[in-house]
Structures are given as structure tokens and as C-alpha cells.
Amino acid sequence: MVMVGVVVPLKMSRNRTAIAARLWLKVTCAMILLCTSVVVFTVDGLPTNVVKTAINNGLFIPTSIRPFPDGTQRMLVMQQMGEILILDTNTGQTQSYMTMQNINSAGEKGLLDCIFDDQFATTKNFFCYFSPNNPEGMRISKFSHQENAGALTSRGSVSSEQILWQDPNSYTGQQSQFGTVHYGGMLSIGPDGNIFLTMGDQTEKTWVQENKDNAGTPRYNGCIVRVSKTGTIPADNFGHSRNIPACWAYGLRNGYKSTWDLQTGRMFIANVGGNEFAPDYDDAWEDLYLLTMANGGSNLGWPLCAGFCGNPLHPDCACGGPFVEPILTYDHTTNEKGCIVGGFVYRGGMFPYDGAYFFGDYVRGWLKYVTLSAQGTITGEVMFDTVDTPISMAQAPDGAFYVASLGGYLYKYTYTGTPSPPPPPGPPPPPSPSPTSCDGRCGIYDATQQCQCDENCPDYGDCCADRDALCYGAPPSPPAPPSPPTGPPSPPTGPPSPPAPPSPPPPSSPLSCVNKCLQNYQPGNPCQCDTGCLNYGDCCGDYLASCVNSPPPSPPPSPPPSPPPSPPPS
């Protein structure tokens, strides 16, 4: 065994903010020899034939790593303060590739990720997700790569920036004792060629389910953003109905790392759980989600859900409800906290792990991989290695893969054995929900679909037939048996009559506006009866019939508005 002397960073608490990272670095930088010499580790516990090499230990608060897609043994390393390094993966040597000056790196903001265009060989473009100083609002921008003489002479052009999307709202969370945190995020390019970004709740979890703040302003907190590589917004994004058009799905606490596996059309999202010293500690679970393109408009449940469905700590998150359930989850204990860090699906051909999903835990200091069935269920979970504070991981075109730690190390993993042939393809995944069904579409209005599943569809007679059964717990009316024919059919005398709309909910139902017309907005109710509900698309199904077309003689007294929430103690 090769024994290597290194300075091992203390395992930090569950608060993963860059403030803590900077404090740690200030204390230990004097102790670390910032070198780029390559050190090969022989580590007890690594799988047979796996070689781990430390190729750099001088990174400063790395947030993301991206190997070049052209096979040139180069990598971009994003650092929170705004500098991007270009690194030689053979020698560990680095040069400054591009530095952003307009950057706000307070808390968990800063330069969080960049990704190469999937057509990089032609376009020479890359995309970055970061938090500018001016104007405020999380941003996705496109930049141009300049190859120059190649190798480490290549540079990114900061002046070529083209803004593709920017959150119209300023940063939130400043009033939190934990700082400005939970901004996600990671970029990936999906099967449709669009850019996907997983965000966080920005310490405002009560805004996530309604996608708006206490004043009714639409908010992207907890969203999965989807935009084109030219900055246009896809017309079928769920968020158009909530005035956040770039939102594709929602319900994240902190989608810190995510990736698409284009071979299977699956998106993996590692959703970070609570802090041990925060009010949500008792609810803290680390969750891994699997989505497909059929999940547009899906709700991942935060803050109503965390952990497995039916979790007694989250009584509003019953199994079979409207929320996407994680495929893997693990909880915090008194002695063991957690912070899941998503990785990648291995498709490199060097290791015998084709199709396995690699991920880590920043607090527990390990790397694992899981194997999956053709239907997307987990069939195995394997411990791979121990790494202090793993923060980003990526596979290179040659099949090697890399892991960066917040302590500044970059590790390379290679395989010296003979990789196993890829497994034979399994049965195809189950078909996407029918556009004539409300399966997975409860509460959603989508003008491109044949029928609807939102609260207003009874007023317009365009509800799907299974809407009440799937979305509101009412048994569907059985279809009437066909009458036996008594003679030749009569010729049609006119256009067919439209189908009758489903019956409205009974007056006692929380989905009814009877005796509730013109009341103040009630954030805890499943649908609303205030005068602004049409603007937000959250009216109860009988709102027009009960409150507009046939208003009651006099409205009930409005309850007093709830006082604003008190800020957490500092």
C-alpha cells in the first residue's frame, strides 16, 4: 500500500455554505502545499482494479467540474468566486480560462455550474449558471470558447455573454440565519435539446407549492427550469399557467446536482435535505428522484414531502398522491447527518458499471453507485469509495471519471481490468400517461392536451373522464351500457353534442365556493374563491357558477389576514 501524507479537512457541519468553506480554507491554507503533482493512491476498500489518483489539491471552493467533450484530456473547473480554470487531466496543471467580475458569491450563490453545448464541436459554446451582482436574479448565460493554440491556452470569452434566462426576482433568504442558501443548481441538456436547471427554495419553502410569495408575486423557488439554447421558452412548460413560464416542474428543496441520462431518457435529481440545527431537522431526508420528459408539471412535494411516501413526519404526503416519489431516500440520525451530491450515469466503457448511477454524500464522505431496472427501480446499492467533502463528479470521454472535493482536491478514477460487456437491453419502460388521462397531471391546464385536469375544467366542459377519480377521490361514473340496435342507424342530423361536464363538487367540499365567495386568499386551501383566483388559475371548479354568474346575496365576513411570519432568530 502506498501511504500518502495529506491534510484532511475537518468534516464540516450540515451547513454547507461557502462562508464555512472559506473559514476552513483560511485556517488550513497555511498548512497545505498547493501543488499539482500527481499522487496515486492505493486505498483499502476500493473495488478490485480501480485506481484512484489525486491530480490536483489547489482548487479554491470548486462547485463543478466538466471534462471537455472533445477527448483532449482537459477539464473546466468552476470555482464559486467566479473563476473558471482549464486543467490538464494528465498533469493536473491549470490556467485561468475565464473570470466573471459581475458575481455575487454570498452564501451559496456564486458561479455554480457550466456545461458544454452538446454540439460543442460545431458551436464552440458553453452555458453557465450563476448569480450576478447587477441586476440581481439567478441567470443562465451562453459564452463562446476560443481554442487559441489548444491545450491550456484556450480561453472562454466573458465579453461574448448572451443571457438566455434570468430570474426576474431578486435573491431571497437574506433574512435567514443560514444566509442566502438553496439556489441549486446544475445544468444539463435533455432529450429534447433544451437546457434544464434544478433550483432550490432559496430558504422560502412556503412559496414552493404555490410558486408565489406572500404578496402573490410569481416565484421560481423550487423549480426545474427549462429553456432552449437560444433563450426561448418552450410553449409546453407547466409554468406558463403560473406566470413563471420557464418552470418545467417544481417541488424541490435544493436540487443541488442533477443530470440527464440520454440513453434511457431519465433525469436524476439529488434533492438535499435539512440541517441538523435548522427548524426542519426532524424532517431531514436526502432524496434521489428519477424523472422523464413525461414529468412536465410534476410536483416533487417539498415542503409537504421528504423521504418515503407515507412518512409519518409528513402526513400530507400519502402514497399514491399527486407527488413524485423518490427512488432512493435516507434520513438523518442524531449521530449521522447527510448532504446528497448527485453525479452521473456511467456510459464510458472503461469500468464494468454501464448504466450505474454514481452519487456521493458531502457530509458522510462517501461515493456510491446504484443499479437500476428497465423500469427505473433500484436493484442494488454499492459503496464505492470514501472522499472527504465530495462536491462534484463527472465522467470523461475516455471512460475515466473525476471527483472534486470542497477541500480543493481533484481525484481521477481509472480501471485496469477488463470491463464487462454492457447488459442486454431490458424491456422498454412503461408508456407515458395518455393525454386523455389525468394520471400525473392533476391540477394542470395544458392547452395542447385533449382534455384537462385543473380546477376550472368543469366550467368549460373539457375535463378528462378520470379527473374526479384520480385527482379528487370521487369514484367515476360507470358508462351506461349500449342499447341493443333495433334497426338501421338514423343518419346524423347535426354535429355531435359536446360531452357533459363532470358534476360539480358538493357544497361541503373544500373544492367548492358555495358560502365562500369573495373570501380572502387562503394559502392552505386546495383551491380559491377570491376575486384574484382567475388571474392565478387556482379557482375552485364552481367559482364562476357560484360567485360570478349567480353571486350570493351577501358575502360571508372575510377572516382577518394572517400576520406575516416572524423572521428566524439570528
Compute the gyration radius: what is it?
A: 26 Å
- Low-confidence segments: 1-37, 422-434, 475-485, 492-503, 551-570
Instruction: Please indicate the percent range of residues in DSSP E strands (runs of 2 or more).
Output: 25-35%
Number of helices: 6
Strand order of the largest sheet: 1-2-25-24-23
Descriptive overview:
The chain has about 575 residues and is mostly beta strands. The chain is about 5% helix and about 25% strand. It has six helices and 25 strands. It has helices at about 20-30, 120-125, 455-460, 465-470, 535, 545-550, and strands at about 40, 50-55, 60-65, 75-80, 85-90, 95-100, 110-115, 125-130, 140-145, 155-165, 185-190, 195-200, 225, 245-250, 255-260, 265-270, 285-290, 330, 340-345, 355-360, 365-370, 380-385, 390-395, 400-405, 410-415. The strands form six sheets. Strands 1-2-25-24-23 form a five-stranded antiparallel beta sheet, with no helix packed on it. Strands 3-4-5-6 form a four-stranded antiparallel beta sheet, with no helix packed on it. The longest helix is centred in the N-terminal third of the chain and has 11 residues, at about 20-30.
Give a brief outline of the structure.
With 570 residues, the chain is mostly beta strands. The chain contains six helices and 25 strands. The radius of gyration is 26 Å and the shape is globular.
